[in-house]
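Q: How would the structure tokens look for this protein?
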Amino acid sequence: MTTRTHDRPPAGPESPARRWLGGRTPDPEAAFRLYCFPCAGGSAAMYRRWQERAPAHVEVRPVELPGHGRRLGEAPFLGLPPLVRALTEDLADELHRPFALFGHSMGGLIAFELARALRERGLPQPAHLFIAATASPERKVTRTTLHAASDEEVLDVLRAMGGTPRELLDDRELMALAIPTFRADYALLHTYEYREKPPLGVPFTVLGGAADTITPPTSLPGWRRHTTGGTDLRTLPGGHFFVQDTVPEIMAAVRAALPVHGPSVTG
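A: Here is the predicted structure in token form.
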């Protein structure tokens, strides 16, 4: 499977936002929408069960990136700036109601840069930014060679990282489809260049795994300098994929950050 760069996904019969959000009609009663971005190689499916655990006033809106999950047939982005531009343009019409952003690992970086891009465009800002297992952006702590690694090397890293069931790793046909996506995501991380800008005014909740050796807790406090809205830094049990096993704790953090009675809006 070959990958290519593009500035945005090809046009289709659906609205731009529906391509990213699975075509699901948003809940008009929700006080907040929580847009969730996956880790490298991940998909919107990692948030599939979150709505069951979410506060009643929060609607979980998992974001599916091109080349991932149900969009596996599309070309993945190989750079963060074009991905953020596409998200900013395509999700703009969704942001007329209060919302927050959640990102795990690579997804945390996407959420952060999306918030900065929305500010630059004069579009609504999130009520809160939730960042999980993501080092502060000025730190270069990713496995930068994986975008050029062999299939076997990628599989070895996936086994070491955990988070991917063994039966999937042993499925050669499935991995033949998944490895190019994983490699593309690490190309995106490898080429990312942090650019100094004024801090956001958005409150942050930064979550880390106590046993995470990929993004250790010591790489998280740097997020404080990127917001004037305050930072709640929390350490949860588990490794890099602690989000799989600590959903109740994460939803407790969401409940604490997003008030039950959101701002009064229309639309």
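Residues 45 and 249 are 19 Å apart (CA to CA).

Strands lie at 32-37, 58-62, 99-104, 129-132, 204-209, 231-236.

Upvote if useful.
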